[in-house]
Design brief:
The chain is built from 25 helices and 25 strands.
Amino acid sequence: MSSDHPEASAFELLHPAVQYHVVNSLGWPGLRPLQEQAVAPLVQGHHALLIAPTAGGKTEAAVLPVLSRMLTEEWRGLSVLYVCPTKALLNNLEPRLSSLAGMVGRRVEVWHGDVSACGKSRTQGDPPDILLTTPESLEGIMLGSRRDHRRLLGGVRCVIVDELHAFAGDDRGWHLLALLERLRTLGAPVEQRIGLSATVGDPAALLEWLAGHASGTATLVHVSAPPAESEIAIDYAGNIANAAILIGRLHAGEKRLVFCDSRTKVEELALALRALEVDVFVSHAALSADIRRQAEQAFAERQNCVIVATSTLELGLDVGDLDRVIQIDAPGSVASFLQRLGRTGRRRGSHRNMLFIATSGEGLLQALAIKQLFGEGYVEPVLPPPLPYHVLVQQLFALIFEHGGEMAEADFLALSGRIPGMAEALDAGWPEIRAHLVADGWLIGIGMQLALGPKAEARFRGKGLAELCVSFDSPNAFAAMHGNVLVGHVDPLSLAGKRDSPVILALGGRSWRVVSTDWSRARVHVVPSEEKGSSRWLGAARGASRVLSQKVRDILDGAGADNEPGLSGRARAKLAELQEELQDTLRTVPFERPDGGYVWWTYAGLAANLLLAGRITTAGGSYGVVTAWSVKFTLSPVALERVGGWKSLAALEPFWEPAAKPKFAELLPASRVHEMTLRRVQAVASIRCPPE
């Protein structure tokens, strides 16, 4: 309740028109807890972070008070930006937000890469009150030379960021914060920042990240659901084929959402379910937007069916009233588990539920570890990646283009210095980065001005300008075309078939035979096939965290796992087998492998083990497979003695060679790329479970 209105209820603080439509158009008997708590700070213009489980009413909790401000303070033109991490989520939210805004005579439009040029021209000519967009599309607006940026964006007063945790834990978050600062240089007040998120480990830090450096009061509004309201079960299938049989037989007549943590597994499971005559749909980022949309719409309208998805359906998309969520193996974090769990339990009288189906011993142990950590109330903190040097240079050239080809260095430094992560990057490396850009022909220093060098002109001018809109690299992929219809995209490694045998791909839960390949245009033409297909996609390694890995170690050591509720007989039997099989791995020092070399079972998480592998390299050894649980390596007795034994080895400075370089790495000195990637792994490795 607002201190300015001690006698007023939250509902009474809303504009009368909003009050009327809440009662008469929405037919609500009252506001939900999060919505009620959010009204007072938001109508007073506070920055805020609204946290509640999925389906907790976060969107309305933010939008209704903002609409109230819009009416009370008579905002005109484009005054609110609603930023989402994906185009699919924007499309999904547009009808809902248009309905809310339309009740009080205001308008919503969407602006992203799939919107036609004609549609964007209409929006620019007649700006809406609320614009739904992504950071990349907002960058595109600001770089567009034919647009009146000040007219379109100069009146933005409030920015709402949906799924804030997805931005803050990624470089897209630094890009977003830079864009908000650039809006201010266009004259936009941007006086209110509102973030929406599911449960996170350190909400105060997330709010500080979003609004701590902006003037004004910041308020955290947090509503949580107790673990007791959730039904969580774990079964063991051993492989994808058996998992498909379980899914096909269990919960017949219900609507089931199945999550896999790779596109390859999604396609494999979908084909197996289709072979069992299960009504199955598929959603992942490599499928065309039309095919995903058709699948999600069909799934939302049916009952006895299954949709198999990656995390694309984790971030708030509405696919109807789900009965059950099933997870193949385990997600990478408790936070991701909570997002997925929150897809269920929306009907009155129903509970949130999830069934883990493990297809491997590792999957079983990590599913059990996540279940136990959830029961203890643990959620990972959101960690903004340190030293975003590559985003710094991206923003440098974006700003130079935005300013017509050159800008004052002092203006760039002042703008970037207002963003904490980029300020750290400036302090640590700007003189070296500037000298590198000038020496390499990317940048020209003219007195106090910075201008495009010949390399930047060649790389980014014209069509290359679109590359500056995106802070991350997209993997190389071939478009799979059935006639003139885009089915999806596949990694080139999926096209490496056997000689004299056709290549059969899996896309959208169906098999497709490749009939021709256009290498110059990165395109394959496909037709439906009755043969079983397969597709693979390369992606960054995603290993378990230190906290999750340590919990796995505790489980193997017998800590409370025997009495864990919700485990099937198969899961209990497999767990007992794993506890016996892996008992020797609980030693705290390396032991020699029969084939030579060592294996060190640290259970320290992937990031920490990557650092350990780097230290082994520093000591003169070499490493093989690195997982979240262990490192395989070779190291001579002489080298080990030289560094002073195992404890001394663990304290060495790691030799670090990043497996993948960030976008725009060629614009940076190699030393800064090395520093950035090392610092980021060290930051992740340092996260530990807080003391109870």
